[in-house]
Amino acid sequence: MNFEQTYEVMKSKLGRILPDFEIKYKAELAVQINQLKKDKNAIILGHNYMEPALYHSIPDIVGDSLELSRRAAQTDKDIIIFCGVRFMAETAKILNPGKTVLLPAQKAGCSLAESISADDVRNLKKKFPGVPVVTYINTYADVKAESDICCTSGNAAAVVKSLKSETVIFIPDEYLAKNVAVETGKHIIFPTRKPRPKKETVLDYQIIGWTGRCEVHEKFTVEDIENIRKQFPEVMILAHPECSPEVVQASDFSGSTSAMVRYVEKSGAPSYLLLTECSMGDNIAASHPDKEMLRLCSVRCPHMNEITLEETLQSLLKIRYVIDVPEEIRIRARQPLERMLAIS
């Protein structure tokens, strides 16, 4: 599409969200990126947390980490540009060793991924020998390489059940682990938080967790929900499973970002509030102008926010910020990812 066509499409979706001068500026960038994408045989993957101007202009595929992992494994393009954070781009590289994978930011880290190291996992396996390790996809490649199977927020309980193991190690998200424990009826402990009583055995625990948290989702509280319901009694509140169990229980629905999108699409509530990265509510509002999304959220992920149209253009122009995973780690990390995709 040329500039006029791109601008009109973006204006129709983003006119209620962004000022016109910003839409025009972003449309100019999008035209350049989309042309380069064709010239260089590239595909752009966009996570649901991307800013609206990027989300609604350049990605070939949008979705949550599970959907994007699936599609990354299937692409025949030479270059994969991952508009997400580093662990997502690493996942694409693990599944596509022969492709060039670009992350349009110098770092774009993740507080949750950085809460655990490969050494931490090895130490857990020494303390609990023989116990399978379930690793949330929001981790770096070297941590995945120490794992038996990966999971996402959308399939975490299914992955735990698929192992048919009395006890599992579930890392690194504390709240997701607790929510999975509730869903699967398992008891959970956090061995780094307090010493393990000598009189108990590993089977007394069933889920062995870690104390990592997402710096976005840990900010939502039950008090927030109570205050919102006082102002908007009929609002439908959707919480991400990285929120605390108390917040999840006080909400009307909990699921992955893609599950939230589907829920909003199919239900007919008067209004919705998403307890997750706040740009996602704007993205849904842009796609579904008939849905009333409450814009009461002010929690932006600083890492996702590093990914911009400007950085994406420069990354593609200069083939900048190439993601590499050491082959020994990549081979070991691929197996738990493939096991997850097979279950999904």
Percentage beta strand? 5-15%
Mean pLDDT: 93
Using the coordinates above, name the CATH class of the largest domain.
Answer: Alpha Beta
Instruction: State the CATH architecture of the largest domain.
Output: 3-Layer(aba) Sandwich
- Domain tally: 3
Coarse shape: globular
What are the segments in which pLDDT stays under 50 over at least 5 consecutive residues? none
Helix share bin: 40-55%
Strand count, sense and barrel status of the largest sheet are: 5 strands, parallel
**Care to count the β-strands?**
12
Question: Would you tell me the structural class of the helices and strands?
Answer: alpha/beta
| CATH topology assignment of the largest domain | Rossmann fold
Give the full name of the CATH homologous superfamily of the largest domain: NadA-like
**What's the helix count?**
15
End-to-end separation in angstroms reads 35 Å
Order of helices and strands: HHEHEHEHEHEHEHEHEEHEHEHEHHH
Produce the secondary structure layout.
Layout: H1 3-14, H2 20-39, E1 42-47, H3 52-55, E2 61-63, H4 65-72, E3 79-83, H5 86-95, E4 100-102, H6 118-127, E5 133-136, H7 141-144, E6 149-151, H8 156-162, E7 168-171, H9 174-184, E8 188-189, E9 207-208, H10 222-231, E10 236-239, H11 245-250, E11 253-254, H12 257-266, E12 272-275, H13 279-287, H14 309-318, H15 327-343
Brief description of this entry?
Helix content is 43%, strand content 12%. It is an alpha/beta fold and 344 residues long.
